[in-house]
Amino acid sequence: MVVAAGARGVIRTPSNNSDDLLVALAQAIMFASPTLRRVTETVPRQRSTLQGMKLTERELQVLRGMSEGKSNAEIGRDLFVSEDTVKTHARRMFRKLGARDRAHAVAEAFRSGLVC
């Protein structure tokens, strides 16, 4: 019916959530615009946001220690674990956050509200 009236298509969303509508609209605009498609294909995709990230409690403790400027040894003493254990938790946390290093992980954590 709407196509017969001149519309090129219909945007359907699975719910009445306005965020879903905005995402669908943005996707439709990008699909319809060859210029935007080319630009977005050259921009590297960001890793998933931290809101849905599942860090363990221990990984969060290590991240908080890093955000306070503590060394791995200091974090280990605070948590009663070895420095190697802290490094293992940090490596796993970096992978989950998509972080390159400590500074990147801490910056992402501050941006997302994981640490204050």
UniProtKB/TrEMBL annotation:
PROSITE patterns: HTH_LUXR_1, HTH_LUXR_2. It comes from the Bacteria. The keyword Transferase does not apply. Residues 48-113 form the HTH luxR-type domain. SMART domains: HTH_LUXR. Keywords: DNA-binding, Transcription, Transcription regulation. This is Response regulator transcription factor.
